[in-house]
Amino acid sequence: MTPISRRVPWTLIVFLIAMIVPWLGSRYDTFLATQIAISGLFAVSLNLLLGTTGLVSFGHVAYFGIGAYVCGILMKTYAVPFSLALPAAAVGAAFASLVFGFFCVRLTRIYFAMLSLAFSQIVWAIAFKWNEVTGGDQGLPDVPYPDLDWMTSIPLFGDFGIADQFYVLTLVVVILCLAAMQRIVGSPFGRMLTTIRENPERASAIGVDVRSYQLAAFVVAGGFAGIAGALFGIFNRGVFADYVYWPKSAEVMIMTILGGIQHFWGPVVGAATLVVLNQEITSYTEYWSFVLGAILLVLLFIFPGGIVGGLSAGWAWLRRRRKDTVRAEVKSA
């Protein structure tokens, strides 16, 4: 993390900018911003494994889906309030990641990745077949919005519709989660995860219990993914088996890599880029998947370290050029 990024309160800045969307934007803008916020949280939770710990998980979507199902079932079937259903979703996803992670962290590299994918496929099969609980291939439609009538009594929020109210709620939850993850990454625990990523053998040699740290990262990432899934289920007004199918893991992996895994805000930028591109391209051509793939390839070639990585490198180059220019002027003087 650069000195500039330490001085600038990016979390607060992003929150304040995002908060003005319901006032200045259209309903479509609010819809898009809600999707970006949820996808950004999901991508950052994956990056806790991928960028911070060095674990390539192809099955991270399992915890996203588990969180969505837990929250959806509690709110729709049992009329549990959102304030209880959301933490339950996080706990359910974290518990599942604890069970699955116990086996996954015993393997390394490609074997770890494939085992994580295998567990996600098990979760998908359960969601697709367990009709009595998950609704099977029909899913759980009509998941209710949380009761947000209290928001109308707050100045400036009185004229908000339910979609705007849910966006504000989503934004607050996402920002709090991102702030918590940023603290985790910058804590001694996060620095130990980075050490394990760089050289797990050396970390083990100096007495670090590598598997325990990796499992802890797995559980934390799974819990935050569960929160993202719970929000997405409400936002999409339903929970379906597609939420835990493997293409969803590929999508969040693309977001994370596109934005830049070495930067905390990289996955958020990648999520925003992919969501906007997807929405815009699909409105212009039926061959949106081909066009989107071509654009992503170009972006990855232009920014091999991700969009944020490329911009950071460009900013560092400009600063060096400016310093060199100043030095040359001083010498000539």
General description of the model:
The protein has 16 helices and 2 strands. It is an all-alpha fold and 333 residues long. It has one domain: ABC transporter involved in vitamin B12 uptake, BtuC (Orthogonal Bundle). Strands 1-2 form a two-stranded antiparallel ribbon. Helix 4 packs across helix 14 (266-282), helix 6 (82-104) packs antiparallel against helix 12 and helix 9 crosses helix 10. The chain starts with a helix and ends with a helix.
Outline:
The chain is mainly α and 333 residues long. Helix content is 75%, strand content 1%.
Write the SSE topology:
Layout: H1 3-7, H2 10-19, H3 21-24, H4 27-53, H5 61-77, H6 82-104, H7 109-129, H8 131-134, E1 140-141, H9 162-186, H10 188-198, H11 200-205, H12 210-235, E2 238-239, H13 246-259, H14 266-282, H15 288-302, H16 307-332
Antiparallel strand pairs: 1-2
Helix pairs in contact: 2-9, 4-9, 4-12, 4-13, 4-14, 5-6, 5-7, 5-12, 6-7, 6-12, 9-10, 9-12, 10-12, 13-14, 14-15
Largest sheet: 2 strands, antiparallel
Give the DSSP E fraction (strand runs of 2 or more residues). Answer: under 5%
Terminal CA distance: 36 Å
Low-confidence spans: pLDDT under 50, at least 5 residues?
1-5
Can you tag this structure with a few keywords?
333 residues, mainly alpha, ABC transporter involved in vitamin B12 uptake, BtuC, 2 strands, globular
